[in-house]
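CORE FACILITY INTAKE
Project code: CF-77B
Contact: R.S. (postdoc)
Sample description: multi-component assembly, two entities in total
Requested service: structural model of the whole complex
Turnaround: standard
Below are the sequence entries exactly as provided by the requester. Do not edit them.
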Amino acid sequence: MEQLILELKKQIIEVLNLEDVKPEDIDSQAPLFGEGLGLDSIDALELIVLMEKNYGIKLGDPAQGKEIFKSVETMAEYIEANRKK
Amino acid sequence: MGVYIKSSAQISIQNPLCNDWAVSPIIYREPYARAVECDYKKYINPIAARRMGKILKRAIAVSSSALSICGAAVPDAIITGTGLGCIENTEKFLSAMTMEGEEFLQPAYFINSTHNTISSQIAIFLKCHGYNNTFVQRGISFESALLDALMLFETGTVNTALVEGHDEMTQGYFKLLDKLDYWRKEADGKGAVAGETAVGFFLSKEEDTVKIEGTEILHTPSMDDMSRSLLKMCSDAGISLKDIDAVMVGANTDEANDAVYEAFSETLFHGVPCLWWKHIFGESFTSAAFGMYVADYILRNRVVPSAMVWKNSVKSAEQIRKILIYNHFNNKEHSLILLSRW
């Protein structure tokens, strides 16, 4: 799981173009939206694309997003349980 | 009524947001170089900047810089000219579509791939709710934006305006033009050097050192058309042709391109000092903005950097009070901008 969390942090930094953020700057349990990294709805779309592209996970129910994208840790847990690649 | 240049700022293949180019310009041997970037954190919150391509960051930086130089906050209008718009993000979006199909397209690239994103982002950043427009007119994009601004001033619609020119030169686009022999070949050292444009002017009705007397855009004009247009422009400004002290031309060492300027200057301005800027700032669809930037610098500071003299030496920079900027694009679209020291 730790490996996946680190991989995910790197991917988030790359896909969201967070130039000055390093993986160690991201608290795995901190909220991704609002506080923490302060992401917004467009970033949510980027994360949905990231999950589908890198892990083959297609988010069927958009309402699920709120729980899945709560933090890097919740994202990693969901990916671990549902990944197709 | 007059329209004056209150301030200007540039990011280019020269050092950004300064006039180092006038004293010690960076000389490029290779025909391709990207712009020298500034520290954008001074102007934009990194979180807000994360979705912005280079062209948008540059636009915010030159806008902020031009406004801060003259202590202005929000202009009445924001008008930009761009030949290619946010081409880098457009390329990323289209490349992803080509490589991976339509399933995994990143929204940020799509959002920022439209040409009018530049004017819009500046407006959002400055919280400007006034007139906002983008001109995509290939080689006369900047001049079209300027013409629009002058008409807005003339009709009393605005008292101030940010008028800008922006273009990126991606490696992909450079290579496409290279296949058409558009750029300098190392063998003979002749031909255009590519450049990237980010130039912003804050214009106002309030009097300042440099006045924009007028601008004209002509499509495939003959020398007679050029002459008539010039005479009208001079007449509107209350001057005659011989009052123009220097002509700033868009020469770039490409023989076919420069022959047009040779004919123009010999026919209408024999013996008059001719200046140029594209050997320093490079060629792009909106490079005429640099012509106006350099002319404004010369008139404002009463100095002609030696590197800017194309032919016929300048006897006294002090005596240069009126500069005509002449640029053409593929010898089809031609533009004239007349500036005077007020």
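Facility notes:
- Residues 28 and 46 of chain A are 18 Å apart (CA to CA).
- The first helix of chain A runs from residue 2 to 15.
Invoice: internal transfer
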